[in-house]
């Protein structure tokens, strides 16, 4: 008899434990469902209507970078050999050098403006100043389009 009584107590203990765990789970689920969650400011909510999706979104605010980095470059070197004599015409080489250097300068300045956006929209922002200067370099000493024509003429002549 003692053996049968022990099995009944063990079975009853398991049933009570499972029932208690079930009640705790139900209480937790009901509590989670009745909580409202975080309250959202009504000014940040919009009414939803059935219709076409919006094609553009305008947002205002300020994006701040996690890390600020200064971008600098320095080039130096020693001229070991002159490939032309004094007074010799170097039209093609000068056109290629100007075209390549100004296009590279504009690309780097544009990257700096993109990296600093939206602050770089101000006229006095350093990236905006560098970009304006770089664009001006494409015009001084002949526009880049003229340099392309000079290069094409030399290529067609040769």
Please, could you describe this protein's structure?
This protein has 158 residues and is mostly helical. It has a domain at 91-157: Butyryl-CoA Dehydrogenase, subunit A, domain 3. It is 54% helix and 0% strand. The chain has four helices and no strands. The protein has helices at 2-34, 91-116, 126-137, 144-157. Helix 2 runs antiparallel to helix 3. The longest helix is centred in the N-terminal third of the chain and has 33 residues, at 2-34. The relative contact order is 0.07. The model has no long low-confidence stretch (mean pLDDT 81).
Task: Give the SSE order as H and E letters.
Answer: HHHH
Q: What is the class of the domain at 91-157 in the CATH system?
A: Mainly Alpha
Major sheet summary line:
none
The CATH topology of the domain at 91-157 is given as Butyryl-CoA Dehydrogenase, subunit A, domain 3
> What portion of residues belong to β-strands?
under 5%
CATH architecture of the domain at 91-157: Up-down Bundle
Quick overview:
This protein has 158 residues and is mainly α. The protein has helices at residues 2-34, 91-116, 126-137, 144-157.
Question: What are the key terms here?
Answer:
Butyryl-CoA Dehydrogenase, subunit A, domain 3, mainly alpha, 4 helices, 158 residues
Write the layout of secondary structure elements.
Elements: H1 2-34, H2 91-116, H3 126-137, H4 144-157
Helix pairs in contact: 2-3, 2-4
